[in-house]
Amino acid sequence: MIAAPASPRHAAPDGWAIALGNPCDEMISSSDQRLVSLDNFLVTPDHAILQASLQNFAKITPQYPGIRAALDPGVCRAWLGQLAPLLNQWFGGDGRPWAMQAWYSLVTTSPQSLAPIQCLPHVDGTDPRQIAMMLYLHRTGHGGTAFFRHRSTSLDSLTADTYPRYAAAVQAEYGRTGLPPAVYPTDGAPHFERIHVAEGLFNRAVFYRGNILHSGVIDNDAPLSADPREGRLTINAFFRPAAG
């Protein structure tokens, strides 16, 4: 579900108010990729967990190793009205308003059931204008989000121009060394290097460009519950310049 550009006048539905004070702004790589985090993002985070427990989760895309449910478009509109000026401030804009798409997400796939591509760092797309948000709403042993550099190409983010070179290098490397082991990425070895970790503190939201190589920090020895009250629950959102 894509939320249309919103005005700051849109009030958040009951229980969904957000607080935007004291952002932490840092660079996560030598190429000056920005990571912005906001602690205590939701005023009442337990309300979001309750609402998640009422959703019908399903596997939406083959790439995501778990299940998702769409976030209420009214929540998206309200958040977008507040976040759009900050996105322009943090990441720049092209004069167009922002559009937003968001889901509740639960990582549920056991390591041994992962597809090979899910065992590598990934990008959400090659458009640097797409901004990702991860809001961590779990108190499990699983972590936040790790960011990586591909060793042989020195790439830590991908664009339409650099993706073919990166894909060819990865295919050649794993052709020589065999498929990656069936585990969630940890340090990235042997072909990737972990360069930064966004700690997944409860009720922390982190924002970054979706074309940076990254992966969820998943404990390969810990359970992955499909219960939003027990599992690695996040709210994932993407912000893009609106069409037109």
Explain the overall architecture.
This protein is an alpha+beta fold and 244 residues long. The protein has one domain (2-241): Sandwich (Jelly Rolls), CATH 2.60.120. The chain has three helices and eleven strands. The chain has helices at residues 45-53, 73-91, 163-177; strands at 2-3, 24-27, 34-38, 66-70, 98-107, 131-136, 145-150, 192-198, 205-209, 214-216, 233-241. The strands form two sheets. Strands 1, 2, 3, 4, 5, 6, 9 and 11 form an eight-stranded antiparallel β-sheet that branches. The protein has a three-stranded antiparallel β-sheet with strand order 8-7-10, with no helix packed on it. Strand 2 and strand 3 (34-38) form a beta hairpin. The protein starts with a strand and ends with a strand.
Write the layout of secondary structure elements.
Blueprint: E1 2-3, E2 24-27, E3 34-38, H1 45-53, E4 66-70, H2 73-91, E5 98-107, E6 131-136, E7 145-150, H3 163-177, E8 192-198, E9 205-209, E10 214-216, E11 233-241
Antiparallel strand pairs: 1-5, 2-3, 3-9, 4-5, 5-11, 6-9, 6-11, 7-8, 7-10
